[in-house]
Amino acid sequence: MEDLARRRLIAIYLTNWSQFVERVRAGFDGSFTDYVGGVVARAQLESALKVWKGNRADDPVDEVRRLDRVFDESTEPLKWLAGRNIMVPSPNAKRWWRRPKWLIGSLREYFLVHGERKA
User: Fold this and answer.
1) Which DSSP helix (H) or strand (E) runs through 119?
2) What is the Cα–Cα distance from 58 to 108, expressed in whole angstroms?
3) Can you say whether the dihedral through the CA atoms of 65, 68, 70, 76 is positive or negative?
4) Per-residue pLDDT tens digits for 74-113
5) C-beta of residue 6 within 8 angstroms of C-beta of residue 30
6) CA dist., res. 104 & res. 27, Å (int)
7) Extended strands (E) in 20-110
8) For residue 67, how many other CB atoms are within 10 A of its CB?
9) Which among 2, 46, 61, 69 has most CB atoms closer than 10 A?
10) How far apart are CA 32 and CA 115, in angstroms?
11) Is the distance from CB of 78 to CB of 87 less than 8 angstroms?
């Protein structure tokens, strides 16, 4: 029973991550909340892959790696500078601290306000 639940969760989370990565690759047009939700989908997938017990022989590891690579290629790393209240590029940023390279709509506006300000 747990194995079946695990496979179903992984399938759902993988679908969610895949759809989100495609949105990011094509030019993300959602809100900041939508973007955070997409990154949360990847964290949920990671949890289901690592924490849930069950048969790991059918895990979609190669597909997850491919999607992660597409996400990384479609985003740029950021770092929050609290003292200046801005985000700046950072080569060591993890998935939570990346933004789409192609922004459309309200997320674009969000990063115009909170992103690195030109002097």
Assistant:
1) none
2) 38
3) negative
4) 998 775 545 544 444 444 545 667 888 887 877 777 777 7
5) no
6) 6
7) 75-81, 86-89, 98-100
8) 20
9) 46
10) 13
11) yes
